[in-house]
């Protein structure tokens, strides 16, 4: 039914707006439709607040009786921070529920739909499934694998450099590409860089022009020494601030001057990063936006821990400089990392290639 | 007038089809229109053959009387290999001439239009000027600067490599991107690679699926030693085959086993390449399609001799390998080469960035 598609698109738009402020919950949109008219709409509120269905139902009030509910994710049927949505839907008198994608949470997994059907509600699933899945790809991944989703972003010249030989990188890409990076940061639970980048660029790692939301800031370091003059140190009170230290006696978290120090307890680079993505998941930082530099970007790639790549290219050639990616050992053509699901986007004379890396480990780490 | 645009677009299409088979002449299209109907059309014939106007007028015959002539370049008024087109237009009884772009040839330069006007023909210029200029950008450049136009093509991974550490490059890009490379080769007078690429890949440098047209083949070498087992050597009878040797006692051309050896007479890398583009122009090879490898690509870029870049990116990451571009000294962010007039094109999961490099030499070569 065309109307179904129309209302689900509306629900997806609501979910998109909520994206980035619901961690570790997925961003969901819901719309209540009675006699062809929207009588209530909502999106997931920040963690601890109500789910999208509850918001939409509350707004619909008595109008929910006999109405249809469009929701971008299967309603939950378990007690988490909030009571199960299924019970509220049943109580509201909703007659029909249309949802996009099944909840991958093993605590739900089709049980929500089942519970609704058992209570005489007509249920259908799959509408705009692909879009709804992609919007919460980080959530689906992290809850299934019990580790944080990692997006790696690099801004490179056409010859693959992230800085000139003197270390300068201002600016490889233009204003509109950099603006979009802030939008990407907003959609992640944390923004991360290596200590080398901290020292070279002293980045703010903030979301500009978006008041009221700050992703956590993460610095990867081989020690726990952070310059007290850095923006990161001076502004650590503004948002959750973490220094990830490879090594230490065991995997543990210590707090000092308002900064969390996460010791992975492992000195091997790859094992340490693997430990980190698990710690981040446990700490409710379910998606990480990693912005380089070379060492940490290459480390995550070599560990096979990058879920999505965002490669921005400025239309410049340096001829030499700092490579964006540099492995301890180059891959062969047969073993190289391939990107799938490629999308291109143009920003003035810059462009963005986004895709999902496929790792062919062949028994050894790349 | 809308009809004018329609007919000029038709003329431009004819020119596009002729592109690549008219060197050192530009590719031109012409259409004769009488009472709203096309009564004759033509494009530049291969070198020594008639110009587009002559072909179109011959086809129109008596119908040219009182008709309009649409032509993508100002008609010539000088004797070259063929008699001047202006005289044939005047004799044919054409009443109106519409052309896209003024001939940059100093022998013509507006004189063609003037000659027509003096003979009572209504003349207008500038329709589809941009497209017509771009189609023959190589011709306009070479005739103005008395040196060959150089297009540089590289096929790189997302991290800027043209081969893995073992030297393998098969295949960084997919079938459809490689197919398009053959189309680009077809539009140039010569296809060129460095001797390193000849030794590593033994390339054919042919235009596949296009019978009857073969661009010249050029190898850049620091000596005159070419493997007798190479495709280049074994197939030198098929098309004009040239080995460009930096050095030698003086700038001269020697022929041996069907191969031309062009000695630049200069050992300095940049000076030698500058000499080469002049020699190529004098030898009627007015546009060169340069396909790497690293040394020769970087040499032309450092010499500031690249007119257009075609950078193909396969959606792969190697982590290390052979850089596509590597200068003896990297540029700073302030001095880097910027690409303007950027165009993007998608080939499956590969993409092409094309643009015009702007060299900021700052008193020294990049």
Give an overview in words.
With 366 residues, the first copy, chain A, is an alpha/beta fold. The first copy, chain A, contains 11 helices and 18 strands. Chain A has a 10-stranded mixed beta sheet. Chain A has a 5-stranded mixed beta sheet with strand order 2-1-3-4-5. A two-stranded antiparallel sheet of chain A has the order 7-16. In chain A, strand 9, helix 9 and strand 10 form a beta-alpha-beta unit. The first copy, chain A, is globular and about 65 Å long. Chain A starts with a helix and ends in an 8-residue tail after the last strand. The interface between A and B is large, with 51 and 50 residues. Strand 17 of chain A pairs antiparallel with strand 15 of chain B, so a sheet runs across the interface.
Tell me the layout of helices and strands.
Two copies of one chain form a homodimer.
Chain A: H1 2-18, E1 29-34, E2 37-43, H2 52-60, E3 68-71, H3 85-92, E4 96-99, H4 111-118, E5 122-125, H5 129-135, H6 137-145, E6 149-156, E7 161-163, H7 175-186, E8 190-194, H8 195-201, E9 216-221, H9 231-234, E10 241-245, E11 252-256, E12 259-263, H10 269-282, E13 287-290, H11 294-302, E14 308-313, E15 316-317, E16 322-323, E17 337-347, E18 350-358
Parallel strand pairs in A: 3-4, 4-5, 6-13, 6-14, 8-9, 8-13, 9-10, 10-12
Antiparallel strand pairs in A: 1-2, 1-3, 7-16, 11-12, 14-18, 17-18
């Amino acid at each position: 039914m065309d109307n179904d598609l129309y209302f689900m698109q509306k629900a997806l738009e609501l979910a998109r707006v909520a994206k980035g402020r619901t961690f570790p919950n997925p961003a969901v949109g819901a719309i209540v439709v009675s006699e062809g008219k929207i009588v209530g709409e909502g999106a997931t509120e920040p963690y601890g607040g109500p789910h999208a269905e509850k918001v939409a139902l509350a707004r619909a009030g008595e109008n929910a009786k006999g109405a249809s509910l469009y929701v971008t994710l299967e309603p939950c049927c378990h007690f988490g921070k909030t009571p199960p949505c299924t019970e509220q839907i049943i109580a509201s008198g909703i007659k029909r529920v249309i949802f996009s994608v099944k909840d991958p949470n093993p605590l739900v997994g089709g049980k929500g739909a089942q519970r609704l059907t058992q209570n005489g509600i007509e249920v259908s699933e799959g509408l705009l499934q692909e879009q709804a899945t992609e919007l919460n790809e980080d959530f689906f991944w992290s809850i299934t694998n019990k580790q944080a989703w990692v997006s790696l972003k690099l801004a490179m010249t056409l010859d693959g450099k992230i800085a000139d030989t003197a270390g300068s990188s201002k600016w490889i890409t233009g204003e509109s590409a950099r603006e979009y990076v802030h939008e990407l940061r907003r959609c992640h639970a944390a923004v991360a860089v290596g200590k080398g980048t901290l020292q070279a660029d002293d980045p703010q790692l903030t979301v500009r022009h978006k008041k009221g939301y700050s992703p956590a800031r993460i610095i990867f370091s081989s020690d726990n020494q952070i310059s007290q003059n850095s923006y990161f140190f001076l502004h650590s009170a503004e948002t959750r601030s973490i220094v990830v230290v490879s090594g230490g006696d065991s995997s543990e978290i210590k707090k000092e001057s308002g900064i969390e120090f996460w010791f992975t307890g492992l000195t091997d680079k790859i094992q340490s990063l693997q430990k980190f993505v698990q710690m981040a998941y446990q700490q409710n930082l379910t998606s990480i936006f990693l912005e380089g530099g070379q060492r940490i970007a290459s480390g995550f790639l070599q560990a096979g821990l990058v879920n999505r790549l965002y490669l921005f290219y400025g239309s410049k050639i340096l001829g030499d400089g700092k490579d964006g990616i540099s492995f301890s050992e180059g891959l062969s053509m047969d073993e190289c990392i391939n990107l799938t699901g490629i999308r291109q986007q143009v920003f003035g004379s810059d462009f963005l290639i986004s895709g999902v890396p496929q790792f062919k480990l062949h028994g050894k780490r790349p």
